[in-house]
Design goal:
Elements lengths: L3 E8 L5 E2 L23 H7 L6 H12 L4 E2 L2 H19 L8 H11 L6 H17 L4 H5 L25 H13 L3 H17 L12 H14 L3 H14 L4 H16 L21 H10 L14 E4 L11 E7 L4 E5 L4 H11 L4 E2 L2 E3 L2 E3 L4 E2 L1 E5 L5 H14 L11 E5 L5 E5 L18 E8 L8 E4 L4 E4 L3 E6 L8 E3 L10 E5 L1
Helix pairs in contact: 1-4, 2-3, 3-5, 5-7, 7-8, 8-9, 9-10, 10-11
Cofactor: Fe(2+); L-ascorbate
Subunit structure: Heterotetramer of two alpha-3 chains and two beta chains (the beta chain is the multi-functional PDI).
Family: Belongs to the P4HA family.
């Protein structure tokens, strides 16, 4: 059976909301004036009813929007902006504070509702923060302050120092904790709800119309999280604190009686230290190694250690490359991994991202004879034929000259462009099919032989391709890592998608 070359454009692994994918993030006109009928965009519409909504909420959204600079690269900013435009705005529209202007507020909201994030977007952004927390061993308390500090005991340097801080509010932390709580993920719910409770205590007595939760809500969810985790003593303490603020709550009063009875029946529960286990949703056996490679970039040999690893100009004996040879950097000899710097221009990268943007859909994986969504692959992807635009034809010619492989169908798949959004990732996997039932075997091209992966954008922090069995991870910059596919397992790779802390795209070609 013939072999195929796969080209996949990895729209930078990570965490960026762009104006192409979310038109509502585009910057508003310099002066957004109230409009009697209709709105040019969500921010203009919000500006048009600014006198009707609490000025505090309007200013919060305005500050976040001005901080995007066209794309919300900082995951904390992206999450906050999605939350303001989803649950927060809805809470304002339906609040008692807005009762005198209900009709105008609802009308303004409905004008742009179809362009706003929905709850699935908000839930996905919250889960993305949890993935970043895990993969990069980040402190929840640090994230709440807007900084990317490592959790205590990791002995790793801070991941990223943003130029502008975007701290999270108590309600922001509460929502992340509640998303984890609703999934029965008490490992994450406890950490985020602890931070929410801490922040709500500081601001107790203040009430923001847009908030979803309160100190009592956070205490309620945190107490039950601790109970489910086996810490009955702390669940009791938090429930008693709840009754201090709301002594008439009968449900919590019953919980207090239940916890007290359990502690009397089993006194050892009062002293028991419960070690929370992080949920292994995808049951990844190599998770620790994968995350270590994402955090530390694994073993990175340098030229003076291994003289055979060097940089050079290469033509591959191709007339196409004689006048403009490619810049090769050897990363690893066995397995062979090389980076080709400046393989595409910024203009070409932007053109490809623009062509793919309207067609991006949730990425799927092969499951025997089916293709389905999976938690271990979080991204959106689109396929581009070479008939779409001459830029793809030119890129294909360059890849052919570099590899010596025929990448025209059916010998290769079409160009795949992948956007990892906020905290996306692709856990360790093989690009080639490992089962005869795979859809790849029904294609005329046969199984995959090689992958050319092109980073369409760089990132400010995180982001890498981890080769698990080679103990190697390659950081994200605009160039092409290229390695042949084999079925020995050496090329099982993981995209530290939660990895690209700040960036927005990649592309790939498989043969």
């Amino acid at each position: 059976m013939s072999q195929a070359l796969g080209t996949m454009l990895w729209l930078s692994p990570l965490l960026t909301l762009t104006a192409e994918e979310f038109p509502q993030l585009r910057a508003p006109p310099p002066a957004a004036q109230p409009a009697a009928m209709g709105c040019a965009g969500w921010f203009q519409c919000l500006g048009g009813i600014a006198l009707l909504v609490p000025s505090r909420f309007y200013n919060k959204v305005q500050d976040l929007h001005q901080g995007t600079g066209g794309s919300a690269a900082n995951p904390l900013l992206a999450y906050s902006l999605i939350k303001r435009l989803q649950s927060d705005w809805l809470n304002v529209v339906h609040s008692l504070e807005a009762s005198e202007n209900t009709q105008a507020l609802k009308y303004g909201y409905t004008q742009v509702e179809k362009d706003l994030p929905d709850f699935e977007d908000l839930e996905g952004a919250a889960r993305a923060l949890m993935r970043l927390q895990d993969v990069y061993a980040l402190s929840v308390k640090g994230l709440a302050k807007g900084v990317f500090q490592r959790a205590s005991g990791t002995h790793l340097p801070d991941l990223y120092s943003p130029g502008q801080l975007f701290p999270l509010s108590a309600d922001d932390c509460f929502l992340v904790g509640k998303v984890a709580y609703d999934m029965a993920d008490y490992y994450h719910s406890i950490a985020w709800l602890e931070e929410a409770v801490s922040l709500f205590r500081v601001s107790y007595g203040e009430w923001n119309t847009e908030d979803e939760g309160s100190l009592e809500d956070a205490l309620d969810h945190l107490a039950f999280s601790y109970f489910k985790a086996g810490n009955v003593s702390h669940a009791l303490s938090l429930s008693r604190e709840f009754l201090h603020y709301d002594p008439s709550n009968k449900r919590i009063a019953r919980n207090v009686l239940k916890y007290e009875r359990l502690l009397v029946e089993s006194p050892e529960r009062a002293k028991a230290e419960v070690g929370l286990q992080r949920p292994n949703v995808t049951h990844l056996q190599t998770r620790d190694l994968y995350e270590e490679l994402c955090q530390t970039l694994g073993s990175q040999p340098t030229q003076y250690q291994i003289p055979a690893l060097h940089c050079s100009y290469e033509t591959n004996d191709s007339p196409y490359l004689i006048l403009q040879p490619v810049k090769r950097e050897l990363i690893r000899l066995q397995p062979y991994v090389a980076l080709y710097h400046d393989f595409i221009s910024d203009l070409e990268a932007e053109k490809i991202k623009g062509l793919a943007a309207p067609w991006l859909q949730r990425s799927v994986v092969a499951s025997e004879e089916k293709q389905q969504k999976a938690e271990y692959r979080i991204s959106k992807s689109a396929w581009l034929k070479d008939t779409v635009d001459p830029v793809i034809v030119s890129l294909d010619q360059r890849i052919t000259a570099l590899t010596g492989l025929n990448i025209r169908p059916p010998y290769a798949e079409h160009l795949q462009v992948v956007n990892y959004g906020i905290g996306g990732h692709y856990e360790p996997h093989f690009d080639h099919a490992t089962s005869r039932k795979s859809p790849l075997y029904r294609m005329k091209s046969g199984n995959r032989l090689a992958t050319v992966m092109i980073y369409l954008s760089s990132v400010d922090a995180g982001g890498s391709t981890a080769f698990i069995y080679a103990n190697l991870s390659v950081p994200v910059v605009k160039h092409v890592p290229w390695a042949p596919q084999t079925q020995t397992g050496h090329f099982s790779a993981g995209l530290c998608g939660t990895a690209a802390m700040l960036g927005d795209g990649t592309g790939e070609r498989q043969s």
